[in-house]
Design brief:
globular, about 1000 residues, 22-stranded antiparallel beta barrel, five-stranded mixed beta sheet
Length: about 1000
């Protein structure tokens, strides 16, 4: 029965194209002949070799490949694992190569044998792969927690400025959103949903064992080419080891290090162009004029001029138009150059790299330059003592005035771009003062720079003799991050007085970790212990100065004393964290796994009435079912592991001094004298403590057909209690709000990762990876009374981020009577649903229209190999998102600004049911909630790897040429620049440096096309 099953199984594989095909007519039955050999090793006659190929358990391997090394002669085993192959006359020292999917290949020198039986060993590379976990490493087969490794191809084959861009959509449970493409900005990241409402919900980031989070640094400072691996810790067993920093997940980044051998020099570069992935084309001149005429008609006004302002008339009469979008934008150019040297001996290993990145944005004035240098060194001083360093410096430059993208899309085509003297016209549509020239930012002086100097070192002592397995490691990290910004706005940019400001800040951080570990194996038992005592500190200080009133614009912000009025300010704070941790791993016979962890953290951010310390324990169990004896006959199952974890992590992610009541200073005139006074600032809460997340995770790791198909499934539930919630206060108290430990949230979800090797034999090879994750986020409680908070849009039983608004059902048309349901509404006004059934449209008719976080998301990667060509295609999908659409609102500017052609408006003739009339002033503040789901062809990379024979003649180690495209096409129902990008309406935190909250930094998602070259010298 077993052999029949294997034969049937082999036939199925062959039918699916999964088996290697014979490459020689040697498959026919052959007869055996006697060996006759010469002293030079040649055969003097055709010889037939027979035998069987089995797995490590003795089971037959149907479809295994048997080839004569150095030739094209080969065959396959039959359903019983038997084979026959004929060795031709004249073959010298013949060697047979045996291979099968999911097993290690074996080479056998024939010698004088005529029967060769081979037992192949399972290729456990993926299971024996060493994975970085908190404060150490583990074999993947021994991991009990939910730990996801970023595919190596996503790290090494994609030209990106920030490594998070390369893994967006590629890891289950990791939500990365690129809401702005401003050069040099980092995407936002969450792991398994948003736990906290007001506190930071971003993951904790650790680089080479030292935290980069809370130091002022970010992954934008790390050269993607320096990264060796990235692991995502998601469940309690994995993250509890980081205690207060683990509640929102942990990202572990390991950079490349030197290896033993002669120096290897690698150079890589790419050059490419960028443009908008989607363009909302503004109206042409005639379309703009028609829109103005329709607005006058719909507002019952008589048309006197064909355009709104007399400043537009000269160009209108002359038929001259300005393409403001074209004037404010350009083809973006990006280039990156990397050079690294690595090598070493048994005693000293080194990795040195340097990078220069230069990006010119698609909106004029936007640019980003990064220059970085890294030096990683490992030295074995003795057999038991090692030391090493990880040093890097990154300089980020975002200098330059910037054109205003929102104004560029709003300008009248008949507006004046230049004055007669060649300078920019301040008000292109004079006397309209609502819009200034979008190019004015280009004539301002602006500096924006910061540097990250980071030095990490370690000392590792391995005790010998009877203490073998006991190890002490000292980690030390220090970072210094100075930052400088400055700007001057003068007469050419519509500031007749001249305004200058400067800002300087610096962050000093250090980390010291003492790690004691012990590992012991006896019989079938494995035990290891890790203990930690660590201390972290961050000191931050800033100073700012401003001046107004300069006699000219010559000095800019280089002499604030020349201003008529100067103001200044400064600030400083300090943060500290002390921690102790213990972790025990135990496994028996690689079958039964146990992990127990406890971490105790003491944070300076919490109140005087608390201990400031919190304890965060976890326990995890694992069962390698595939290692059990009863699984030996389960030929199709190569790996099956069950995991369960339960534990608690904490979150302290609020700024310092929120537990202290403070006052702010204010300068006021008193009896003719300027006097400093005090006003209410922050209301402190001395009882403030951690918010804690209780996490449960059940996971299955699986592998079938010798790991031909493998992956994992995880289901989880996280409950966060004692939220660090910013509750509103009555204004009579003098304070607006106060932090308190209130409320509870929940995140439930499922994650799937599936890897398949679809074609592995023949010239074409094909691999696929599918990731899927779904998260359900809910608010379970807020203030203990079971009531929702309407003002903040927080609703019990609903996600943290929702769109709460009226439900639009259409547009009132001529002849329809709106008086009973919506008095005052007229034809062309939006029509809303009477959700509460009282017959009238009131504020009580607002409902939850959707959530702002995705209900589910996924990614599909297909990789094809044909000869020296490799093609990688990645598709990302994000579904179940609802967002207000500012590209549709324009309510405050109807009739006065240009609008995109695709954004129409109601007329009595077109009877639109989706767009209002131009006269509609949106009295209810409707946000135009829209479905922001999308599926995106995220990236496609085609590469060619030059053959080694050619490279050997040229003295090169490897050469790869590639072309790559990102954000190539998006399938979506969203009407706007991009469903992922955030376009802020005018006035939203003007002049803010945060592109996610400032209307002056609107910057849609871009598409890029690059070509690159990777070379290594040996």
């Amino acid at each position: 029965m077993k052999h029949k099953w294997l034969l049937f199984y082999g036939a199925i594989l062959a039918a699916q194209g999964l088996m290697a095909q014979s490459v020689s007519p040697a498959n026919a039955p052959l007869y055996a002949s006697a060996w006759t050999s010469h002293t030079d090793g040649h055969l003097s006659a055709i010889v037939t070799i027979t035998g069987t190929v089995t797995d490590e358990k003795g089971g037959a391997l149907p479809g295994a490949t048997v080839t004569l090394k150095g030739s094209s002669i080969g065959t396959n085993t039959d359903g019983n694992g038997a084979y026959t192959i004929r060795i031709p006359d004249g073959t010298k020292d013949p060697v047979l190569v045996f291979s099968f999917i999911g097993y290690q290949s074996s080479e056998v020198a024939i010698g004088r044998q005529t029967t060769v039986n081979v037992q192949l060993q399972g290729d456990a590379k993926s299971l024996n792969e060493v994975v970085v976990v908190g404060y150490g490493t583990q074999k993947r087969s021994d991991i009990t927690g939910a730990v996801a490794s970023v595919p190596k191809g996503r790290l090494s084959q994609l030209p990106v400025t920030n490594v998070l861009q390369s893994i967006q959509g590629a890891v289950a449970g990791l939500n990365i959103s690129q809401s702005s493409s401003v050069p040099g900005t980092a995407p936002s990241v969450t792991v398994r949903g948003q736990n906290s409402i007001n506190a930071n919900s971003g993951p904790f980031v650790v680089v080479d064992g030292i935290p980069i989070s809370k130091t002022g640094g970010s992954l934008a400072d790390i050269n993607p080419n320096d990264i060796e691996s990235i692991e995502i810790l998601k469940d309690a067993s994995a993250v509890a080891i980081y205690g207060t920093n683990g509640a929102n997940g942990v990202i572990l980044v390991t950079t490349k290090r030197g290896t033993t051998g002669k120096p290897t020099i690698r150079y890589s570069n790419y050059v490419g162009v960028e443009n908008f992935s989607n363009v909302l084309t503004p109206r042409t001149g005639p379309e703009y004029a028609q829109k103005y005429a329709d607005w006058l008609s719909q507002t019952n006004q008589k048309q006197v001029n064909p355009v709104p302002n007399f400043g537009e008339l000269p160009n209108y009469n002359a038929g001259i138009t300005t393409d403001w979008f074209k004037e404010a934008t350009q083809t973006g150019v990006l280039q990156d150059h990397n050079l690294s040297i690595s090598g070493g001996t048994d005693k000293v290993r080194y990795f040195i790299s340097g990078e220069f990145l230069d990006q010119k944005g698609v909106i004029k004035g936007y640019q980003y330059k990064r220059a970085s240098f890294r030096s990683n060194l490992d030295v074995n001083l003795t057999d038991y003592l090692s030391v090493g360093t990880s040093l890097f410096i990154a300089n980020n430059n975002r200098d330059g005035g910037r054109s205003n993208f929102l104004f560029a899309t709003a300008m009248s085509p008949y507006g004046q771009l230049y004055n007669t003297n060649g300078t920019y016209a301040i008000y292109p549509m004079y006397p309209e003062l609502l819009y200034t020239n979008p190019m004015l930012g280009l004539v301002t002086q602006r500096v924006d720079r910061n540097t990250n100097l980071n030095g990490n070192g370690y000392l590792e002592l391995k005790l010998p003799g009877k203490l073998t397995g006991l190890k002490y490691r000292l980690n030390m990290g220090y970072s210094f991050i100075p930052s400088r910004t400055g700007s001057y706005v003068g007469r050419a940019a519509n500031d007749l007085l001249g305004t200058a400001n400067t800002f300087y800040s610096e962050t000093n951080s250090y980390t010291i970790e003492n790690i004691l570990s012990y590992a012991k194996d006896w019989d079938k038992h494995h035990f290891d212990f890790t203990g930690l005592y660590s201390a972290q500190q961050r000191r931050y200080s800033e100073s700012r100065a401003n001046a107004v009133g300069f006699v000219n614009d010559e000095l800019g912000f280089d002499n604030l004393g020349a201003g008529a009025t100067q103001t200044s300010g400064s600030y400083a704070d300090q943060y500290r964290l002390n921690s102790q941790m213990g972790r025990i791993n135990y496994n028996y016979d690689s079958r039964y796994l146990l992990t127990v962890t406890a971490r105790r953290d003491g944070s300076s951010v919490f109140g005087a009435n608390t201990s400031k310390f919190g304890l965060f324990p976890s326990v995890a169990l694992g069962w390698n079912i595939s290692n059990e004896g009863f699984m030996k006959n389960m030929r199709g199952i190569s790996n099956l592991k069950l995991r369960f974890s339960y534990g608690k992590a904490g979150n302290e992610a609020i700024s310092v001094y929120r537990t202290i009541t403070t006052s702010n200073t204010v300068r006021s005139p008193f009896n003719g004298v300027s006097t400093i006074g005090a006003v209410a600032g922050n209301l402190g809460n001395a009882n403030l403590q951690w918010e804690t997340t209780l996490s449960r995770n059940l996971g299955i790791d699986f592998g079938f057909i010798n790991n031909r198909i493998n992956g994992s499934i995880d289901v989880y539930q996280n409950n966060t209690e004692g939220l660090l919630l910013l509750r509103s206060l009555p204004i009579i108290t003098g304070y607006q709000n106060v932090f308190d430990n209130l409320g509870e949230t929940s995140n439930k979800g499922i994650e799937l990762t599936l890897n398949t090797r679809n074609l592995v034999k023949g010239p074409l090879k094909w691999e696929s990876t599918v990731v899927f994750s779904s998260n359900r986020n809910r608010i379970l409680d807020l203030y203990g009374d079971g009531k929702s908070d309407l003002g903040n849009r927080w609703f019990i039983g609903s996600p943290i981020g929702v769109v709460y608004d009226y439900q639009m059902t259409g547009v009132w048309q001529q002849g329809e009577d709106a008086s009973s349901q919506d008095p005052g509404a007229k034809a062309g006004d939006l029509k809303f649903a009477d959700t509460n059934g009282d017959g009238k449209i009131t504020a009580d008719d607002r409902i939850i229209l959707g959530q702002t976080a995705p209900k589910w998301q996924g990614g599909l990667t297909n990789t094809f190999h044909f000869g020296n060509f490799n093609l990688n295609v990645f598709v990302q999908t994000v579904q179940g998102i609802t967002r207000n659409n500012s590209d549709l609102s324009y309510g405050d500017e109807s009739g006065r600004r240009n609008t995109p052609q695709v954004v129409g408006y109601w007329t009595a003739e077109n009877m639109s049911q989706t767009r209002p009339s131009l006269a509609y002033n949106n009295p209810r503040g409707y946000g135009y909630a829209s479905n922001a789901s999308f599926t995106r062809l995220k990236d496609v990379t085609l590469s060619y790897v030059f053959g080694q024979k050619l490279l050997d003649r040229l003295g090169l180690g490897s050469v790869t040429l590639y072309v790559s495209g990102r954000n190539l096409y998006t399938f979506t129902n969203w009407i706007g620049w991009d469903p992922e990008a955030v376009q802020q309406p005018r006035g939203t935190q003007a002049n803010s440096s945060d592109p996610n909250t400032s209307w002056t930094n609107n910057y849609p998602v871009t598409r890029s096309f690059v070509g690159g070259l990777n070379i290594s010298l040996r």
